[in-house]
Amino acid sequence: MIGKRVSEEGGVYRVRADDLPKALQPREKFDRLGPENLSESDLLALILRTGTAGLNVVELAEQIIMQYGSLSALSQASAAELKKDFPGIGREKAKMLKAALEMGRRLVQENVGERPRIASPEEAAAVLRERARSLDREVFWVLLLDTKNRLMAPPCEVSKGTLSSSLVHPREIFKPAIQHSAANVILAHNHPSGDPSPSANDIRITKKLIEAGKTMEIKVLDHLIIGRKTRDGANDFLSLRESGLAEFEER
Question: Which of 216, 235, 239 is nearest to 227 (CA)?
Answer without folding.
Answer: 235
